[in-house]
Design goal:
94 residues, mainly alpha, 86% helix
C-alpha cells in the first residue's frame, strides 16, 4: 500500500471521527460550563497547532525534501485531535 494513500485514509477517518464528535457535542445542553469547556478546548487546540507548526517548520528547515502533504496532515490532525481531547479533558476536569 502506498504510504501517501494511508495518510489520506487517516485524514478521511479523522474527519469522520471529528464530525461524529461534533454532532454529539451539538446535542448537549448549552450553558456557561459547556461554553467554558468549548473555549478552553479551542485554546488548547490553538496552542497545540502553533507548537506543531513550529516543529514542522523546524523539521522542514533541516529536511526540505519532506512532502508538503505530510506537513499539512500533521497540522490538521493536531488541530482536530487536540480539540477533541481538550474538550474531553476539560469536561472531566471542570
Amino acid at each position: 500500500m502506498n504510504n501517501l494513500f494511508s495518510v489520506r485514509i487517516l485524514a478521511l477517518v479523522s474527519v469522520v471521527v471529528y464530525l461524529g464528535f461534533d454532532y454529539m457535542e451539538n446535542r448537549r445542553v448549552r450553558d456557561e460550563r459547556e461554553d467554558l469547556i468549548r473555549l478552553k478546548g479551542l485554546e488548547l487546540a490553538h496552542k497545540a497547532t502553533l507548537a506543531t507548526l513550529a516543529g514542522v517548520a523546524l523539521l522542514y528547515l533541516f529536511y526540505p525534501r519532506i512532502n508538503a502533504f505530510y506537513i499539512i496532515e500533521a497540522l490538521v490532525l493536531s488541530a482536530l485531535y487536540t480539540e477533541i481531547w481538550g474538550k474531553v479533558y476539560y469536561r472531566y476536569k471542570l
